[in-house]
Amino acid sequence: MHYGASLDLRFDESVEEFVEFLDTQGLSHVEIRRGYLDVAADAPTPATLRDIAESYNVTYTFHAPHVDSNLGNLNEALRRGTVASVVETLDDAALAGAGAVVVHGGDVPKRYPDRAQVHSREQAVRSLRECAHHADDVGVPLCLENQRERASRRRHTATPDRLAALVDDVGVDSPYFGITLDVGHAKATGFDYRELVDRFGDRIVVAHLHDNDGTGDDHDPLPSFRAVASEIGAEYNVLEMKSLADIERCVRGAAVD
């Protein structure tokens, strides 16, 4: 099992500086967010990322675009563009030697009529099927994440039943189509993350570890992250914090526990 943290676009550190920080915390995995690469002044190439990984003995996962990206987009041209961005992330992940790519399953405003709800989900199925086949081609697992439910939008993976049904309808039986279990999203949506462990088991490749009070997706520190990760059994375990200080709080709290 690998333990690390997400390199969020909020962070000013370079990839190498972030890796060095994680090393001081006893962590050796980085989740590279596409959003971070999109806004970084000198974003490293996949080849540079591979060199950093080899120099520091760290592992990577990538997070595909999700801000302003929707695999269930009602507009076909925008849907194709989102698929292309996920495919590009899979290609970069393969070149960088990453172990997985995390992806969101799409959503639609709840105020839209039923026909739009159905169409969005059909778009998400098509998109994920295309992306999962490409993941199989490049040999990098594409891992569908449970998103948190929101009052205004229906997210196609927000509950265990919805996530399972979407995976079934995508219908790609491959070791390169897996699951990302987000503990904080489960709590904010109102169910226990163990429901996903029971349902998906070994198919869970990535765990996102953070906490909240059950009312919002706050990404608070989770000092019990190692105990939670041991219950999940994912290969890659990612602290999703909003600051380096919160990552330190997680590690410090875990040491006390």
TrEMBL record:
<dbReference type="InterPro" id="IPR013022">
    <property type="entry name" value="Xyl_isomerase-like_TIM-brl"/>
</dbReference>
<keyword id="KW-0255">Endonuclease</keyword>
<dbReference type="InterPro" id="IPR036237">
    <property type="entry name" value="Xyl_isomerase-like_sf"/>
</dbReference>
<feature type="domain" description="Xylose isomerase-like TIM barrel">
    <location>
        <begin position="26"/>
        <end position="221"/>
    </location>
</feature>
<keyword id="KW-0378">Hydrolase</keyword>
<protein>
    <submittedName>
        <fullName>AP endonuclease, family 2, putative</fullName>
    </submittedName>
</protein>
<keyword id="KW-0540">Nuclease</keyword>
<dbReference type="Pfam" id="PF01261">
    <property type="entry name" value="AP_endonuc_2"/>
</dbReference>
<dbReference type="GO" id="GO:0004519">
    <property type="term" value="F:endonuclease activity"/>
</dbReference>
<dbReference type="InterPro" id="IPR050312">
    <property type="entry name" value="IolE/XylAMocC-like"/>
</dbReference>
